[in-house]
Amino acid sequence: MSNFVELLKKRRSIYNLGKNTSLSNDEIVELVTDVVRESPTAFNSQSQRVVFLFDDAHEKLWSMTEELLKPLTPPEAFENTKEKLKGFANGKATILFFEDTDIVKRLQEQFALYAENFPIWSEQASGLTQANVWTALAEKNIGANLQHYNPIIDESVSSEWGIPQNWKLRGQLVIGSIESPALEKEYMENADRFKRFN
């Protein structure tokens, strides 16, 4: 089996994260920057934007998220929510993924024939980028889990870190040292997912 497939198998949702990663903050930024630059985008739009939250900023995000979720969560469920968010805060950092909507709009105007597809292609590029970054981190034995608290946290994130209004938050990748492995993964039957014709 190829190294690539082995890496894909290694890229799992890890929820028990710590702060003792094999890479420094600078090395994480360098790795992720390289991966994002090499990830494909339709029309080479390069619409992905990334914000790194380390240390206090990382913990601030999850504290902020807790405050925003409290009034939206039934009281009987909130303790579980708090524990989950505490687990995220225990990690090393959060990588925020955005898409630049100005680029999408500009391409829609420039190539009117494909206008309705550009938002779709933007989402596809975002997903590709997130998966590529996650896999690259897994290769370095850095655990991660991908969260989607947008749009609930969008306004607070933009205000706290001065994010441009045209950057649309698409996901939050929580990363850190792997304190316990992922659970066993269950797979659907191949016959239910794949068809082949000769």
Automatic annotation (TrEMBL):
An annotated Gene Ontology molecular function: oxidoreductase activity
BP terms from Gene Ontology: cellular response to oxidative stress
Pfam families the record matches: Nitroreductase (PF00881)
Protein's UniProt keywords contain Oxidoreductase: yes
InterPro entries xrefs: Frm2/Hbn1, Nitroreductase, Nitroreductase-like
Coiled coil: none
Cellular compartments per GO CC: cytoplasm
Location relative to the cell: Cytoplasm
Signal peptide positions on this chain: none
Highest taxon above the source species: Bacteria
Nitroreductase domain boundaries: 8-176
Annotated SUPFAM superfamilies: FMN-dependent nitroreductase-like
Alphabetically ordered keywords of this record: Cytoplasm, Oxidoreductase
This protein's name: Nitroreductase
